[in-house]
Design goal:
Rossmann fold, binds flavin-adenine dinucleotide
C-alpha cells in the first residue's frame, strides 16, 4: 500500500460516450480543484481494448490513467468493477473519487463507498474546495427543498457522484502527455448476481439539451399538450432545444429526457426562454448558468420573473404564437 495521496480520481464512464461526456466534464473540474489542493488528476478505466479512452482522457486533462483491460470487463459488471475500484483505492489511497451520476454511476459509487467505509454525496450539482482543503459537495437534499453543502472531514476518500452537464470539458489537446498505469486483473473477479439479457442503444437526440445555445423551457402555464407543442416549433426556428418542468413531464406533454431541474438536466444556454414556469428551486437550480433569461408569465410576482433578465407579463401561449409569427416573417423577408 502506498501513502495517502492528494490525487483526485475520476471514474471513466465510456458507455454512452457521445451522448454523455460526463467523464470529461469531471476531469475538467478535477483539474481546477487539483490546482488548489496540489494533487494529480487521475482517470480510472476498466474495460477491454480501452486504449482510445485512455488517450481521450489524457487529451482532456488526466495526468495519470489507471487501466484494467481484460475480456472479462468488456461490458459493465457491477461486482467486478466495484471489486477492482475498491482494490485500487486501497492500494493508491486517493483523496477524492468522482463518478458521473449516470445509471451505472449511481449504482456503482455507493457500493464502492460502502466497501471503503467512507461517505458519498449523491447527485452533486457543485464541487469546490474550502479553506481547510476539504471537498465541498453541493447537492439538493431533503426532497430537493434545500441545497446542502457537504464535507467529509474524516473518512477518505471523499466520494461524490455528479450530474452530467454541470461542468464544461476542456478542449481536446492531442499533445497532452500522461502516465498510464496498467492494473493486473485478478482471475477471481466476483460473479454477477444480475444477468444481462440484452442492451439497446437509445438514439441520440438531435442536439443535447445540455449543449444547446438556445433553450425554450415550458411549464404548466403553457396550458395543454397541444399548446406546449408550439415550443417545439419555436425551438426549431431558433435552432434550440425544448426543456420542461416536472408537471409537464408528468402530464406527458414532453418526454422525461426534457426535464430540466435537480431531477433532470442542467442547462447552460446563451438564451433561455422560460414560458409559464413559476420558478421552483428544484427547477431553477439547473438554469443558473444560462447567460440571458427571458421569462414569460401571467403573474408578474412569480419567482421566475424576478430571476429573469427580461420579464414579460403575458399569456405564454400568445407570446409563443407571436414570436413564431415574427420569426417566420423575418426568415421569409
Ligand atoms: C424532490 C423534488 C424534485 C423535483 N425536481 C424537479 C425538477 O427537476 N424540475 C422541475 O421543473 N421541477 C421539479 N420539482 C417540482 C417543482 O417543485 C415544481 O413543482 C415545478 O418546477 C413547477 O413547475 P411549473 O413551474 O411548470 O408549474 P407551476 O408551479 O404550477 O407554475 C406554473 C406557472 O405558470 C404561470 N401561468 C399560468 N398560466 C399561464 C399562462 N397562460 N401564461 C403564462 N404563465 C402562466 C403561473 O403563474 C405559474 O407561475 C421537484 C419537486 C420535488 C419535491
Amino acid at each position: 500500500m502506498t501513502a495517502a495521496s492528494k490525487d483526485i480520481w475520476v471514474f471513466g464512464d465510456w458507455r454512452n460516450y457521445f451522448q454523455n461526456r460526463i467523464t470529461l466534464q469531471l476531469l475538467a473540474r478535477a483539474r481546477e480543484l487539483a490546482h488548489i489542493t496540489g494533487g494529480r488528476v487521475c482517470a480510472v478505466v476498466f474495460g477491454q481494448d480501452v486504449a482510445e479512452w485512455v488517450d481521450e482522457y489524457i487529451a482532456h486533462g488526466a495526468q495519470t490513467v489507471y487501466v484494467a483491460s481484460d475480456p472479462a470487463l468488456y461490458r459493465y459488471r457491477i461486482g467486478a468493477f466495484t471489486a477492482l475500484m475498491v482494490g485500487l483505492a486501497e492500494q493508491y489511497r486517493p483523496e477524492t473519487i468522482l463518478v458521473g451520476a449516470t445509471g451505472f454511476g449511481r449504482e456503482f459509487a455507493p457500493k464502492v463507498a460502502k466497501r471503503l467505509n467512507t461517505g458519498l454525496t449523491a447527485d452533486c450539482i457543485g464541487l469546490d474546495i474550502d479553506a481547510d482543503g476539504l471537498l465541498v459537495q453541493t447537492a439538493p437534499s431533503f426532497g430537493g427543498n434545500l441545497i446542502a453543502k457537504i464535507v467529509t472531514p474524516q473518512s477518505r476518500p471523499q466520494m461524490a457522484t455528479v450530474r452530467p452537464g454541470i461542468f464544461q470539458e476542456i478542449p481536446h489537446n492531442a499533445e497532452a502527455i500522461g502516465e498510464v498505469v496498467e492494473i493486473p486483473v485478478p482471475g477471481d473477479l466476483p460473479g454477477e448476481r444480475v444477468r444481462l439479457v440484452s442492451t439497446q442503444k437509445q438514439p441520440p437526440r438531435e442536439q443535447r439539451l445540455e449543449d444547446a445555445r438556445v433553450v425554450i423551457c415550458g411549464g404548466r402555464g403553457m396550458g395543454s399538450k397541444a399548446k406546449f407543442k408550439k415550443l417545439f416549433e419555436l425551438a426549431r426556428l431558433m435552432e434550440g432545444e425544448v426543456g420542461a418542468t416536472r408537471p409537464v413531464v408528468y402530464a406527458g406533454w414532453a418526454d422525461p429526457e426534457a426535464l430540466v431541474g435537480q431531477a433532470g438536466r442542467h442547462v447552460r444556454p446563451q438564451v433561455l426562454i422560460s414560458c409559464g414556469i413559476s420558478g421552483a428551486i428544484q427547477h431553477t437550480a439547473a438554469i443558473g448558468d444560462a447567460d440571458f433569461v427571458i421569462a414569460v408569465n401571467k403573474n408578474e410576482n412569480a419567482t421566475m420573473m424576478r430571476l429573469a433578465d427580461v420579464a414579460v407579463v403575458a399569456d405564454a401561449n400568445q407570446f409563443c404564437t407571436a414570436l413564431i409569427r415574427a420569426l417566420k416573417e423575418r426568415l421569409r423577408g
